[in-house]
Prior knowledge:
alpha+beta, 14 helices, elongated, disordered N terminus, MotA_ExbB_proton_chnl, transmembrane, protein transport, coiled coil
Amino acid sequence: MNRSRMIRTGIGLGAAALLFAARPAVAAEQGPAEAATAKLEQSQRELAQLRKEIMDQKIPLSRELSGLEENLRAVRAEYEDVRRTLDTRNLDLNNLREELKARRDEKNYLANLLGEYARNYETQLHIAELQRYEDVLEDARLAPENSNLSPGEQFADQLELVTSSVARLESMLGGTRYPGTAAGDGGLVVEGTFAQVGPAAYFSADESDLAGLAEQRLGSMQPTVLGFEDPAMVEMARTLVESGNGHMPFDPTQGNAHKIEQTRQTVWEHIRKGGVVMFPILGLAAAALLVALVKWVQLARVPVPDDRKIEPLLRALGRRDVAQAKGQLAKIRGPVSEMLAAGVDHLNESKELIEEVMFEKVLQARLKLHRALPFIAVTAACAPLLGLLGTVTGIINTFKLITVFGSGDVKMLSGGISEALITTEFGLIIAIPSLLLHAFLARKAKGIVDRMEKVAVSALNQISRRNTDASAHAEGGAS
């Protein structure tokens, strides 16, 4: 439409230009009126000619314009189609990008999930099965990091582990047998056959009599065969592995009972783990025990007279009858007899002298009875200190090993601390009985001394009463 307007405007401007161009020529030849009339006629003829030309050109131009407009509509329709197609493709492209991102996230999730499954699956395997599934585990573990493999091949390696795990579950329903290697008690690795039923795996060597329960030993990637104490159970395990049928020596604790059995040790082995400090601790214990036994026998053999034997002697002392007092002393033995004999020997002396003489015998008996008892008390006090010394030195050695080898082996750390605490254990084991023995022996010795002091006080009272009666009688006679 705009193009047709431009064509029409161009035709009109051309006609006007022709009219204005023709006017000066006519005006020059004729007069003003004739010239104007001629000019007008000429202009009309030219105008008619131009109109005819315009009419002649209008129809083709209109047809051309209509064709162009039709082409324009077709082009616009094609443009709209292309634009709709482009928009659709952009939308599809965005959807594909979102889907691709979702698939990538799903791929990463599945890769992480399969990697986690591989790690957990390896921890759930028995030590004997690691040899059987070693290749599959290695491929599944290294597949995500292998750039030479396509994503499909990586997933194939990881899915192979899932497939083998399902096959393992199916084979474990009734038990399974497979070849492998295991280490015996001496550490020698031999070839043989495993028979696994649930969590329990049994091994029988091909070229030796080694047979038993296969378990993992800390720090070793080889299964270790734990033998049975009963030969019949060893034969049962060998028959089960070799034939696949028979009785199974089942351990309901899944090997824990066998491990606990291995931790048991003799008293001498337990003592040796305490180290050098155990020697002075045991030496003190032996010496304290020997002293306690000697003192026990010594105190048990000390005679302590009862009141029935003491009363006649006290009455003789009250009468100042030396002969009768010595006769009664012959019936009494022990430190009480020695103390009273010293008093009888000085019976005619003053009360103060008799008291001093008897107190001297009490002191001598007390020193003799308490002799060596302080050693038992020292043992009770020193044994825990020696045990603490051994513990400190043992822990220092343990930390030295940790400095060299690191703290990755918890068994080494706990074992070192356990051995270090053995000295403290024995220190307390020796200190507590020593303390009780010292208290018992000291109490028994004190009882003997107290008995002597009581008898001495009673004798002095009798002597004092006799002196008082004699003084009162002398004063009465003088008056």
